[in-house]
Amino acid sequence: MKSGIITIFTLCFSVAVMARKEEELYYSKTQPANLKEEKVTRVGFYLHDILSGKNSSAVRIAHDNLTRDANSPVGFGSLFVMDDPLTLGPEIHSKEIGNGRGMYVSASKEMSKFTIVMYADLTFTTGKFNGSSISIFSRNPVAEEAGEREIAIVGGRGKFRMARGFVKIKTHHIDMKTGDAILRYDATVYHY
Ligand SMILES: *[C@@H]1O[C@H](CO)[C@@H](O)[C@H](O)[C@H]1NC(C)=O
Ligand SMILES: *[C@@H]1O[C@H](CO)[C@@H](O)[C@H](O)[C@H]1NC(C)=O
Ligand SMILES: *[C@@H]1O[C@H](CO)[C@@H](O)[C@H](O)[C@H]1NC(C)=O
């Protein structure tokens, strides 16, 4: 009788333990994050987005047949993949400090308001932030204003883990015929 009760008790106990174990398999205990103080770092460079030539850094991988504009390499509905070098100076042969990899899509039906939406990871390959990156997920209103425009930083890796912030972009040079562009990026990165 006594051993029977003990057996039942042991069984219930192991079922409870097993249920707890099972839960613990896919999530941890929720605890305060105790994040360190947030820091800010400013990062500046040039991004070269070269569509023309044999060694282009961005290529169109899809476009819509209906809206395709023969006069524009970047018509509404065009999707590009990019592996754009990031350099210290505006010349392509100035010191390379990283690369921007990802995609952008031409997403404005009004060509006078040429807008792209970018999904990109900018990774640094030298210096203090070697191996760290900032993640861009943003509308980029390329033609909307004359001077400066802004895109959003939504995350990052390495030293920029959990980053947020923004990048001010200025067009240093653009060839409207080919779409080749050299852009000045001034990023303000908040990170831990
Ligand atoms: C092609 O582009 C890559 C990356 O920008 C560069 O390292 C390489 O030197 C270029 N090759 C030629 C032949 O220009
Ligand atoms: C796409 O457009 C081109 C040029 O207007 C046309 O020749 C071709 O048949 C179209 N393709 C499709 C799948 O509609
Ligand atoms: C950057 O990091 C990579 C990977 O850790 C390493 O191979 C490379 O030598 C580093 N470059 C510089 C310039 O520190």
From TrEMBL:
Subcellular location: Secreted, Extracellular space, Apoplast
Job of this protein: Dirigent proteins impart stereoselectivity on the phenoxy radical-coupling reaction, yielding optically active lignans from two molecules of coniferyl alcohol in the biosynthesis of lignans, flavonolignans, and alkaloids and thus plays a central role in plant secondary metabolism.
InterPro entries membership: Allene_oxi_cyc_Dirigent, Dirigent
Keywords (A to Z) from UniProt: Apoplast, Secreted, Signal
Organism this protein belongs to: Camelina sativa
Signal peptide feature range: 1-19
Main location as per UniProt: secreted
Recorded superkingdom: Eukaryota
Pfam families associated with the record: Dirigent
UniProt-recorded name of the protein: Dirigent protein
Protein family (similarity comment): Belongs to the plant dirigent protein family.
Quaternary structure annotation from Swiss-Prot or TrEMBL: Homodimer.
PANTHER family: NUCLEOPORIN-RELATED
